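Hi X.,

You mentioned you wanted examples for the new student's onboarding notes, showing what a folding record looks like when two proteins sit in one file. Here is a clean example. The first protein comes first, with its sequence line followed by its structure tokens.
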Amino acid sequence: MEKVTANVFTETKLRGCNPSYVTTADGVVVIDTPQLPTRAIAMRSEAESHGPIRYLINTEHHVDHIFGNYYFKGAGTVVHHQGVFDNFMVVGPELDPFAYAAEAIPTDDPEGRAIFPDRDVYYADPNKGEIVFTGDLTLRVGEHTFRLLHTPGHTPGQVAVHVPEERVVFTGDTVFSACQTWLMTSNVDQWLGALEQIRALDVDHLIPGHGPVTTRKYLDTQRSVLLEWKTAVAVAVARGWSREETIERVEFAERYPVDIGQEYMMDYIQKLNAASLYDKLTAGPPAPGR
């Protein structure tokens, strides 16, 4: 794993999110877990070589950030924002998270097949939150402070983890560094606010949900990506384009590559982003009383 500071480690070169951990004088705090089974087991072993795992924090509910929790059972207390807890591995109309996790095994982790659980076994105990909170939460471990900041936008329960002693913030998917941004069912306006919330932090290192470690300066780039997507779809709506026309014509595939292991999903991401924004921008106001 990449050593960001004396006590902060992350992995940016695996399929899935950037799983990380922080070592302290009183054990280890894990932030997001690897999607791939053998990588999850290896990361747990490496983290525990620095001391017992005290907490496991998931920054969001998407499968690439949480599936590895299954392999961390018995290692520390799992901490979730209410939005993460409520949506943890829930099958939705766009994605079956368990099937998505299984899909990566033959191509990205064939050795993981032997330890990949059956669906029923997995859902009987996926290792979700024991501490569940709303708003923000601060944890102290040894001499380190972990500020869990609610930064909704990419997902409703999105959390950034600020560790001031290391001058580091783990943003989760509020930041996609130098790779394609997945909008999915996000709230772009909230997301823009989350970027400003992170900008206010006094940090040297920004560890994104995907892509290389970066700095606060990259927040400008992430903001521009969100604004470009929203503006392009808004212009399409203003021109009277249909949903199908918008999905076909609005895309930013040339801007960045897809993150590791998802290269085949470029077209899917472009269509999903355009469709999601089109639906939101054409939905109209909520019904009275709602």
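Then the second protein repeats the pattern, sequence line and then tokens:
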Amino acid sequence: MVLKVGQSLASSVDTTTVIVVRAPQDGAGELTCGGVAMVAGGKPAGDGSTIDPSEVDGAVLGKRYVDVDSGLEVLCTKSGQGRLALAGAALVLKAAKPLPSSD
């Protein structure tokens, strides 16, 4: 699947939904949740009961997840139980930028 900025993706196995904030540099890649490919648009199609226990990590509402190697960044718009991954590599929670001091 070609990932584009602003694209909404939904999980096939739990309640997770995300929006692509930054697309991978080459645009291509398979974004998965709970080990199953996410689908463009639509509503989440599962309740989390079919997720492989090794793929449970949970996306948190309002948090951004990144893949440093490809440049992909997604924003979680609905939380769920599945782990987000791009081409088999788990996405990591993006750390907040520290605010400058106000001396």
